[in-house]
Design a protein that fits this description.
Helix 8 links the parallel strand 7 and strand 8. The protein is globular, with a radius of gyration of 21 Å. The longest helix is centred in the last third of the chain and has 23 residues, at 320-342. Helix content is 39%, strand content 14%. It is of the alpha/beta class and 426 residues long. Bound molecules: ligand KE4. Ligand KE4 binds next to helix 4 and helix 5.
């Protein structure tokens, strides 16, 4: 028995599913999760010494690759000054200034400790600012595990085939209105019925938690207009797309300004960091200035800020990283598309920049319902084939491939060879 198996046997007696986040349990692929000992660049090494080419990147944060020297150096420097003060620090001002510089529409922001906390707080700020209760979300979009968002969520909730979570009281979701991604008619009906009661519309500007699903032409623009016309706020959940799709994230990529935006992952450089922010007049409803309470012992923690500042600062000073991510994405996802075309295989590849998903379905994947047509049994075989070849993918059809600046053309070509090998028998 390998070390991962040994550890997993004990882990399941101490933590639900043996993990601290459900999707890590490899449940939908029916395998023992690999316990990771270390990581560097585009590679993970597990506790049995096996090395994997990593396409999860800790679910998005590791856009520069693992253990980037610039990030490690700044974190080590910060650690030597003490780990947490529970007081204002210069690093938090530096971080807020940098985010504002990279995304000017974020005039004011608050650091928190996770994407979930960022979304929970942004929703409370939106409700506090508008005095309204209803929130529109989209099936298959995952916004963390705050009660109000655990309705037809994506990611691990979708993977588990549990569209809703137990333990969430009706009262917590009675004001959550659901629409299908890319279904403008459905959203317009909600506004017709609830318009002046809708505090906000929240969405992933690119869905990445039902697999990758792109916004169709006009979708984001229409949502922007509907929110403006009804006095509702548009919230972009950019926990994944933020600082990945472009230096200014999806707002820059699509040229659409949201009223509030949530961040996580990349802005922490691998440390637990989230943030929410946007128009100053909205953020000034947040305590201690306004009446919306939100707080956090480790929010803006100096070590986490050091990691985030190092990674974001590098991205800000090296815009060529984004061109490289586009190249890598085109090479990998374009290569997949060519392969499917050659072999006349009906599968689908959705991709944008360094994000993408191979769906084992012949249907165009444009929302939660079409994503659910994917053959998860075939995905399970694909995942196992890739892992055995030393390629570490997200253990679910309803997640994304995350490329990093540490991936090379050779990594991509090797990956395409392994996929080609799998598709021979698919
Ligand atoms: P966290 O609370 O996990 O930091 O962020 C929640 C969140 C919010 N919004 C979006 C768009 C997200 O993708 C996430 C978290 N993403 C998942 C991956 N699909 C995290 C992986 C996990 O749950 O372990």
């Amino acid at each position: 028995m390998g070390r991962s198996e040994e550890l997993f046997q004990e882990a399941v007696t101490l933590m639900p599913g043996g993990v601290n986040s459900p999707v890590r349990a490899f449940g939908s692929v029916g395998m023992t999760p690999r316990f990771i000992a270390s990581a560097e660049g585009a590679y993970l090494t597990d506790v049995d010494g096996k090395r994997y080419l990593d396409y999860v990147g800790s679910w998005g944060p590791m856009i520069l690759g693992h253990a980037h020297p610039v990030v490690l150096e700044k974190v080590a420097e910060a650690c030597r000054k003490g780990l947490s003060f529970g007081a204002a620090t210069e690093a938090e001002v530096d971080m807020a200034r940098l985010i504002h510089q990279m995304v000017p529409s974020v005039e004011m922001m608050r650091m928190v400790n996770s994407g979930t906390e960022a979304v929970m707080s942004a929703i409370r700020a939106a409700r506090g600012f508008t005095g309204r209760d209803k929130i529109v979300k989209f099936e298959g979009c995952y916004h963390g595990h705050t009660d109000a968002m655990l309705v037809k969520a994506g990611s691990g909730v979708m993977t588990a085939g549990v569209p809703d979570s137990s333990g969430v009281p009706k009262g917590a979701t009675q004001d959550t209105l659901l629409a299908a991604y890319n279904d403008l008619a459905g959203v317009e009906q909600l506004f017709d019925k609830y318009g002046k009661e809708i505090a906000a519309v929240i969405l992933e500007p690119v869905g990445a938690n039902m697999g990758v699903v792109l916004p169709e032409k006009g979708f984001l623009e229409r949502l922007r207009r509907l929110c403006t016309d009804n006095g509702s706020l548009l919230i972009f959940d950019e926990v994944i797309t933020g600082f990945r799709l472009a230096r200014g994230g999806a707002q820059e990529y699509f040229g659409i300004t949201a009223d509030l935006v949530t961040y996580g992952k990349i802005i922490g450089g691998g440390m637990p960091v989230g943030a929410y922010g946007g128009r100053r007049e909205i953020m000034e409803v947040v305590s201690p200035v306004g009446s919306v309470y939100q707080a956090g012992t480790l929010s803006g923690n100096p070590v986490a800020m050091a990691a985030g500042l190092a990674q974001l600062g590098y991205l800000n000073e090296h815009p060529e990283v984004y061109a490289r991510l586009e190249e890598l994405g085109e090479r990998l996802f374009g290569g997949m598309e060519e392969m499917l075309e050659e072999r006349k295989l009906p599968f689908r590849v959705n991709h944008i920049g360094s994000l993408g998903s191979l769906f084992f379905t012949s249907e165009p994947v444009r929302d939660y319902t079409s994503a659910k047509t994917a053959d998860t049994a075939l995905f399970k075989e694909y995942f196992r084939h890739m892992l055995e070849a030393g390629i570490y993918l997200a253990p679910s059809q309803f997640e994304a491939i995350f490329l990093s600046a540490a991936h090379t053309d050779e990594n991509i070509d090797f990956t395409l060879d392994v996929i080609r090998d799998f598709l021979k028998s698919a």
